Amino acid sequence: MRSFASDNNASVHPRVMAALSDANRNHAVGYGDDPWTAAALEALRQAFAPAAEPFLVFNGTGANTIALQAVTRSWGSIVCAATAHIYVDECGAPARMTGCQLLPLETPDGKLTPQLIEPHLHVLGVEHHPQPAVAYISQTTELGTVYTAKEIRALADFLHLHGMALHMDGARLANACAATGCTLREMTLDAGVDVLSFGGTKNGMMMGEAVIAFRPEIARDMRFIRKQSAQLASKMRYLGAQWTAYLKDDLWLTNALHANEMATRLAEVLARVPDVRFTQKVESNQIFCILPPELLTRLREKYFFYMWNEPAGEARFVTSWDTTQEDIAEFANILN
């Protein structure tokens, strides 16, 4: 079954699968004391910075909750967009695990700005109110839009001026880098990000994310937070082997470039259909558009995809590293 529902539905890249097979031999010490994990951590440091501290985890919710626990206390608040994954799709896990209140802000494009956050900082230092501790951003956003490195830098500088941290959920960071031409480091550490949830599952890996701390005081307690959050893998080598393959020869970038290109072509197909209206810029591998009801019915007979706003007829289509030209052509045939 082919679908445009989510890049989570895509297959595992053959090079990642081969790395898993290679790791699946003999015995290895558990909990990360193995050569595959060591190689993965070194590869992540090379991709971001020698002083970066990566911690391998199972999934995105785990990565986000660990990262946020490392930069908050229970009387804090976490500022995010109203469309943010931590607010909409993680079943309250970030609030439960941190003890912090989430402060969702309405945005036109899923992106936070200093101007949106500033009106909510008058409570700083007032003991009756949760203290804004960190801003959470998604790169790319849940609406498929992309922060530029300059936008992230401006946000980070503003937050740091007010004693706050910046956490980036990089579940689709690869797609953002592919869209902008930035390196992983330029989009994160150099732009002022304090802690990152780096995703691979949506871009060719089987499972696994990495929490990356860019400041030593954030990394200090991370291994204990990871263990207490049930995110320490006993057979860590299977996570590590994937990361090494994913980062080698920029496979992460090749996959993301292809996914973005397929989204561009799918958007071109949709744009040729009368009465189709795009609700967000197509900047990565996600497309948001409003389609006529009869067209939605025809597409649903063939494909599984998500309705973003059912009453408005707004659908989301997502391409992935294994979306093919044939997939796009078949989609176009249904539209005709």
How many strands, which pairing sense, and closed or not: the largest β-sheet?
A: 7 strands, mixed
Q: What's the CATH topology name of the largest domain?
A: Aspartate Aminotransferase, domain 2
What average pLDDT do the residues reach? Answer: 96
End-to-end Cα distance: 21 Å
CATH architecture of the largest domain: 3-Layer(aba) Sandwich
Number of helices: 15
CATH class of the largest domain: Alpha Beta
Tell me the β content: 15-25%
Number of strand segments: 11
Number of domains: 2
Envelope shape: globular
Helix content: 40-55%
The CATH homologous superfamily of the largest domain corresponds to Type I PLP-dependent aspartate aminotransferase-like (Major domain)
Radius of gyration: 20 Å
Strand order of the largest sheet: 1-7-6-5-4-2-3
Class of secondary structure makeup: alpha/beta
- Low-confidence residue ranges: none
SSE order = HHEHEHHEHEHEHHEEHHHHEEHEEH
